[in-house]
């Protein structure tokens, strides 16, 4: 394999030298910065093909063929020798048969020789495959590095060519949206838009991809069994009390059932019992799956049943047990995940994936009044394709619970981002580097008629 070294003052010049010398299909082994410039090691694709086809077992088969030819050549040479010396052949005729018998005895040894010679070849084959796999992994890593550099260069050019896209990207990041989602939206934004047009377009795209209930008829009027789940301290009990109060105000206490599974904390169910006493609704405390089935059977005549679950960490194995308990009943239970708006996007993503073992029916954003930015919560809801029911922005029951309004939430996210002047904001010269090291988001957004 003919590996060549190229050196230039920059990566772009070195790549141009590789393309000129080895062609468009050259294979790059390494690309690194050295003193005074950039060094690239590369070779032609044809050399890679010849290296791949150069298999060691083929050579061993040739070596096996050589010993097999030796008896054949000896057999062809013996008749010629006997014809050259007839007297000797006639005198040695009685001994000819033993002589051939002696020559045939080493045959097993001859057939055994290939087994000895193939052992190194068989040992070398895995080593050769390992080298090829290591080389392919190195090529993939280099491809990722080059793609990252190209994206970084591309975004550097976009900042000069279309600064509105750069400002839109910065606006999304400041609002708390992830770099992956922000990149996807900014890259798909139509060119040559004014700042006002770009902001309107971005907000419309986010509204289109944020799923929310139009009104609360699904809970208050249609009824059913709803379980509020989520980590510790996210506000499940308070939100359950708010929902219960809204239902009692519309339908009365006789059609509502309350269940709590919080039997682990000392006095954990007492808070909901106090709310139930105020509303005139009995609270049933359950400890396991059998108790839950009994409680649901007793409350089967109720229009709506609300279940307040115990809060556990998303990394606790009790999450799977809790989801299994809620999924094992004959009566379907709709699971609503409570998301803390003050958490980071990484934490919220971890929570959703932990509780998404079985299908989630929706989510509720809590502690909205405590969050500096809410873009991370909206980002996770969009990427995970959750359905947003309510938002809670305080401790008052039931005043601080509202049906999710997509337009207001997105407007609030950008308003909070515009007011954010903390050190967590990115500068314009940092955006190309950030985009170059951001993987595309797995969820493809609906971009409307401009980008179908």
Automatic annotation (TrEMBL):
Principal localisation: membrane
Record-annotated AAA+ ATPase domain positions: 222-388
Localization (cell): Cell membrane
Entry membrane topology: Peripheral membrane protein
GO molecular function: GTP binding; GTPase activity; signal recognition particle binding
CDD domains: FlhF
GO CC, one annotated term: plasma membrane
Origin superkingdom: Bacteria
Sequence ranges of Low complexity compositional bias: 73-96, 104-127
GO biological process per UniProt: bacterial-type flagellum organization; protein transport; SRP-dependent cotranslational protein targeting to membrane
Cross-referenced Pfam families: SRP54
Function: Necessary for flagellar biosynthesis. May be involved in translocation of the flagellum.
Record-given protein name: Flagellar biosynthesis protein FlhF
Organism: Methylovorus glucosotrophus (strain SIP3-4)
């Amino acid at each position: 394999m003919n590996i060549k070294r190229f050196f230039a003052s920059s990566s772009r010049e070195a790549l141009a030298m590789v393309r000129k010398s080895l062609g468009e299909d050259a294979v790059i082994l390494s690309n690194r910065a050295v003193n005074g410039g950039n060094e690239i090691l590369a070779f032609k694709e044809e050399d890679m093909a010849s290296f791949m086809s150069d298999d060691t077992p083929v050579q061993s088969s040739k070596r096996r063929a050589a010993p097999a030819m030796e008896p054949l050549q000896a057999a062809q040479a013996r008749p010629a020798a006997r014809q050259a010396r007839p007297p000797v052949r006639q005198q040695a005729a009685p001994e000819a048969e033993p002589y051939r018998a002696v020559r045939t005895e080493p045959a097993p040894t001859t057939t055994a020789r290939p087994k000895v010679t193939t052992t190194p070849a068989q040992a070398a084959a895995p080593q050769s495959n390992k080298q090829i796999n290591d080389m392919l992994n190195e090529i993939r890593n280099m491809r990722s590095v080059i793609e990252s550099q190209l994206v970084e260069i591309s975004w550097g050019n976009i900042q000069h060519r279309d600064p509105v896209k750069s400002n839109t990207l910065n606006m999304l990041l400041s609002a708390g949206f992830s770099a992956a989602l922000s990149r996807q939206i900014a890259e798909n934004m139509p060119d040559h838009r004014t700042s006002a047009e770009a902001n309107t377009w971005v907000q419309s795209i986010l509204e289109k991809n944020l799923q929310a209930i139009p009104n609360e008829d699904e809970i208050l009027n249609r009824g059913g069994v709803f379980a509020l789940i989520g980590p510790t301290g996210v506000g499940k009990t308070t939100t359950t009390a708010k929902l219960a109060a809204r239902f009692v105000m519309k339908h009365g206490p006789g059609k509502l059932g309350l269940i709590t599974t919080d039997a682990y904390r000392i006095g954990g169910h007492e808070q909901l019992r106090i709310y139930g006493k105020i509303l005139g609704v009995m609270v049933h405390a359950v400890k396991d799956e059998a108790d839950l089935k009994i409680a649901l059977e007793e409350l089967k005549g109720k229009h709506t049943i609300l279940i307040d679950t115990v809060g556990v960490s998303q990394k606790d194995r009790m999450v799977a047990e809790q989801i299994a308990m809620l999924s094992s009943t004959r009566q379907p239970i709709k699971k609503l995940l409570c998301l803390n708006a003050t958490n980071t996007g990484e934490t919220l993503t971890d929570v959703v994936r932990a509780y998404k073992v079985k299908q989630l029916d929706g989510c509720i954003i809590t502690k909205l009044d405590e969050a500096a930015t809410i873009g991370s919560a909206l980002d996770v809801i969009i990427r995970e394709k959750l359905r947003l029911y309510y938002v809670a922005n305080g401790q008052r029951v039931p005043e601080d619970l509202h049906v999710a309004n997509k337009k207001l939430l997105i407007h609030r996210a950008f308003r909070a981002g515009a007011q954010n002047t903390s050190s967590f904001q990115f500068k314009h010269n940092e955006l190309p580097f950030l985009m170059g090291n951001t993987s595309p988001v797995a969820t493809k957004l609906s971009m409307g008629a401009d980008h179908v």
